[in-house]
Amino acid sequence: MTSVQVDKEYDGSEAEDSESGEGYKRGLGARQIQMIAIGGAIGTGLFLGAGKAISKAGPSLILAYAIAGLVIFFIMRALGELLMYRPVSGSFSEYAREFIGPFAGYVTGWTYWLFWVVTGITEVTAAATYMTYWWNIPQWLSALIFTIILYGVNLISVKLFGELEFWFSTVKVTAIIGMILICAGILTLGFSDAGDTASVTHLWDQGGFFPKGITGTLMTLQIVMFAFLAVELVGVTAGESKNPRKVLPKAINTVPWRIAVFYIGALIMILSVVPWTEFHPGISPFVAAFQKMGLGVGAGIVNFVVLTAALSSCNSGMYSTGRMLRDLALNGQGPKAFTSLTKNGTPLLGTTVSAALMLVGVWINYQWPGQAFNYVVSFATISGMWAWIVILICQIRYRAKSDRGELPESTFRAPGAPWASWFSLAFIALVIVMMGIDKDTRVSLYAAPFWAALLGVTYLVLRARNPEGAAFAKRNKS
Which of 146, 68, 161, 110 is nearest to 329 (CA)? Predict the structure, then answer.
């Protein structure tokens, strides 16, 4: 599909249930896209992973989130520039094929698919962990039940996925805003068990703002970046969004205030009410904060919220994996069987295969219920960051071509480009270096070369069997 064809297709006049050029139903409305964009940045990385990050860095974690949040904004604006040039489902691999090469598209598509499979395992693991707050039931059983339910939802229609994601995100947003207001009330009015000791001075009087030094802060970057994974999901929805040229830029522009409120604002409030030394790895800082305040009911409510956050992310994983496999198949870089859609416009086989692999999470929870989250989070981070790297490289190359007049100029140009994109790439490189230094996350870097080698071998096989699929995306020939 050429950019001219895309311009014609995305003229803003799509009917509610019209089909995109890829066969999908345009069932995602403006309010759903907005909440998917907002909710995409609020998940397990914030609700569960922040406990470990706080124990490693103390209050300086706030600064880590602020700097990483700026990088995420640059990445999302780079993605937005590409989306307005050519808004298609499976956007990351499509852009990689066009601006880097067919092998890059192959690697990106399969790596992003793997990222969501691994993330699905991570999130269902977290959800199973949250269930133990109320009931002493095996983690693997909860993980199995959640996987089956979300699989069923994603097979019905994209509208149901969007509606479920809308309400999941609404719960998360409402809860965090409510928690911020409660903490603000404690700081100003002094109610609850923490009222007498709550103070913003906790941000620097417990060993300083950098109690573990700059190194401690740098060592949390992997956890911080994991928390932001999935913000790019809005790009995958392009092929099923109503009027994407209008809706997607608005969703992307909400990134700065999302980060300011839900990450920086929430952490400032929590760490002002409860000293950072009271938080420990493996325990949600939100739940722990309410327990320290003596608000037992509040802790139960927050645990329900973080449960919905994990299920929300797993739901997104189910959605994106099927689309990515179909995009690969349509371009001759995956089995043809993945191209089929149901009458409701959902990729049945791709979603089914992905959900089946997510059941590996059930086995992980059965074998290692205590370490399951840490085992998969680091590999999810490195595979997810690959998509960001590709987005930035593609935006740099696209901007150069559009500035030379070789391609039409995007209607949503990224600010500060290309220097902002180069800065973001350097920051991601720093995160990868820190992952290599940290023995707890180093395992993901060991696994990455094996995955790269596997992709290299399978690509050679593909090129031998299907030279056209390996040479270039079929749809881009038209």
Answer: 110
Question: Residue 47 is encoded by which pair of tokens?
Answer: 């609700």
List the Cα angle 41/210/375 in 5-degree steps. Answer: 50
**CA 79, CA 82: separation in Å to the nearest integer?**
5
pLDDT, mean over the chain: 80
Residues paired with 241 in a beta bridge: 28
Preceding peptide of 281 cis, ω within 30°: no
DSSP state of 208: -
Residue with tokens 């290599």: 436
Residue 153: strand, helix, or coil: helix
Which residues lie closer than 8 Å to 245 by C-beta, 6 or more apart? 10, 12, 84, 87, 411
Q: Nearest-CA neighbor of 358 among 386, 385, 318?
A: 318
Q: Which two tokens stand for residue 386?
A: 């690959």
Cβ atoms of 273 and 194 within 8 Å: the answer is yes
∠ CA 396-237-81 to the nearest 5 degrees? 25
Residue 418, preceding peptide bond in cis (omega within 30° of 0): yes
Angle (CA) 338-87-43 rounded to 5° is 75
| CA distance linking residue 92 with residue 404, whole number of Å | 23
Q: What phi and psi, each to the nearest 5 degrees, are found at residue 26?
A: -85, 75
Burial (CB < 10 A; 0-12, 13-18, 19+), residue 8, is: exposed
Tell me how far apart the 2 most distant CA atoms of the chain are, in Å: 71
Weakest mean pLDDT among 69-83, 101-115, 179-193: 179-193
210 vs 215: CA distance, rounded Å = 9
Q: Are 400 and 466 in contact (CB under 8 A)?
A: no
Kindly tell me the sign of the dihedral angle through the C-alpha atoms of 202, 203, 209, 210: positive
How far is residue 476's CA from residue 234's CA, in Å, rounded to a whole number?
Answer: 22
pLDDT in tens, 230-251: 778 776 666 667 777 777 788 7
Place of tokens 């998360």: 172
CA-angle at 290, arms to 362 and 261, nearest 5°: 85
Measuring CA to CA, which residue among 18, 23, 113, 1 is closest to residue 340?
23
Integer angstrom CA distances of residue 97 from 100, 222, 385, 470: 6, 28, 18, 10
Q: In a 10 Å sphere around its CB, with 0-12 CB exposed, 13-18 middle and 19+ buried, how is residue 443 labelled?
A: middle
In this prediction, residues 129-145 reach a mean pLDDT of 83
